[in-house]
Amino acid sequence: MTIKEMLEQISTNTLEKIRDAQDTGALNDIKVAILGKKGELTSVLKGMKDVAPEERPKVGQLVNEARAQIEAKLDEKLKSINRLARAEKLKRETIDVTLPGKRKLMGHRHPNQIAVEDLERVFIGMGYEIVSGPEVEYDRNNFELLNIPANHPAKDEQDTFYIQRSASGESRDDILLRTQTSSVQARIMLEASDPTKERQLPIKILSPGRVFRADEVDATHSPSFHQVEGLVIDKGITMADLKGTLAQFAREFFGEKTKTKLRPHHFPFTEPSAEVDITCFKCGGKGCRVCKGSGWIEIRGCGMVHPHVLEMCGIDPEVYSGFAFGIGLERITLLKYEIDDMRLLYENDTRFLNQF
Ligand code: DAH
What we know:
There is one protein chain. The chain has helices at 3-20, 24-35, 40-46, 56-92, 111-125, 139-142, 153-157, 183-192, 239-254, 307-312, 329-336, 343-347, 350-353; strands at residues 129-130, 136-138, 162-164, 175-177, 203-212, 224-234, 260-267, 270-279, 296-305, 321-328. The chain is of the alpha+beta class and 356 residues long. The chain has a seven-stranded mixed beta sheet. Helix 5 packs across helix 11 (329-336). The termini are far apart. The mean pLDDT is 92. The site of 3,4-dihydroxyphenylalanine has 12 residues, from strand 9 and strand 10.
């Protein structure tokens, strides 16, 4: 076979193979087998030394032509394979934009959470710092430092879940689930009166959180609910500051026309103590279903921090004074959204939650 014939044979075979190739892998194999270092066409070139010198330019030209033709065909086929693959991919991924969309279920904030955040915003606006305390507490912080010593009747009022009775027999070392966020008052005052701690006086904090009492579940009770505690300690703090603060809070939270009333009461850790009422935000004080006809709504307690509490927490009551208040969060949430059963807040039924 002459070189020319060999070249023609290689070209014909190769072009046929290119035509039949199905994918880019097959094309690549052909390229290597023909044009590669050990490929068929390359071997022909290597055989040039046996060709008579005057023939060489012509044969060289033939080889180059064959090579160029094969390369062109390879290129063309590669493009057509890619084009087909792309067309198929587009077909597979076609989206019918006229089909109805799938509605994604979106979570959102729980009514209690909405109320806490609204409350926090109001107090942050008045310069308060938001702090949190542990739900598992020592008796000392939850009771003793708040003027509720061993055997105090208030301990029975707040039926307590105990985690661990102290080995020493001293009730102050018992470990329990806090019955009130007032426990954070003790922690913060102790911290502020310790010169080695970063926090120092004055104090202006708000502490929302979960509290626990061994109560049966009904429409207004739950063994776990939430309170928001406020504490301000500085030089020269008076009852007028307390009243002004609560009145400002009530106006911002419940509406500009809301009035605040303090009713004398008793809490062990404040003296004097009061219960806080606000005019009903629903009827404005005329009397309605929400306020049970009285025109007033109780939101919890407050008072001037008892000097003995200050003393026990390392703060000199001759120099410093302060006020504290406690707000029942569920009470506010239930009233604000006119929900008449507390259990709805905990069942997490999305049909209920979606309404907020
Ligand atoms: N801790 C009280 C309770 O659980 C509420 C309370 C009353 C908190 C008066 C206070 C306060 O800070 O001054 O009922």
